[in-house]
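Quick start: read one record
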Amino acid sequence: MLFSEIQYKINKARQLDFGTLLNDSIELFKKVWLQGLMIWLIMMAFVIPFVIFIYVPMVVFSLVDSESPRFFEGMEVMAVVFFVLAYVLFAFIMLVVTFGLKAGLFRIMRQKDTDMVGKDDYLFFLRKPYLLKTIILSLAYFGINLLAVLLCVFPIIYVMVPLNLLVVVYAFNPEISGSNLIKASFDLGNKKWFITFGITFIAGILAQMVGMLMCGIGILVTASFAFIPLYFIYKEVIGFDEDIDELKHIGNKKNFDATL
């Protein structure tokens, strides 16, 4: 979809119904809860190597230091630098991985929503040709968040809506330039700020409450529910480019013909 088309659809967007968005999100969650759980498990798989990389040297250093205190004289600065660099590297990797996995989850939501037959490609945006753009958008995501924090706390409340929408806009329009993706997400966020903030806030609370009822660990299962309303906001405002054959496959040809 062209950037100009996205802007036009955002400007002409109709009013959204809160109840419909919530009900549709619940129905889709029934189809994608397993994929949402897989996203968090994949994130944990990225965290484990870092934990080993950081804490094993710490344990070794502490054991050797207790046995030979003089061995580490003058090495405290090197140890601090090592751990700071390791943490920065980990934060960067997790920022990119989280952004890419969320974008991949939105693609999977589309497949499940339309009953498309396809592979659940969680790493779609973490491979070529999209990895570089995922990195750039992740850094922009972090930079805008940081700037909002530096401008006091209130701006972060505002930017959290368009930044969350940035992931879903990118997921379905990866061919658009990074700057236009950011602009489109802010245009959509400005247009639908209150309902987006409200529905994601309620969805987040529901996800946590239900997750806690499932002995706490259930939060991993329900956490993805907080993202689903973003998918339906994008769907209702911008929509998707689909050919007739694809619509036949998902059984919506009649609705499609009615729009022609």
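The radius of gyration is 22 Å.
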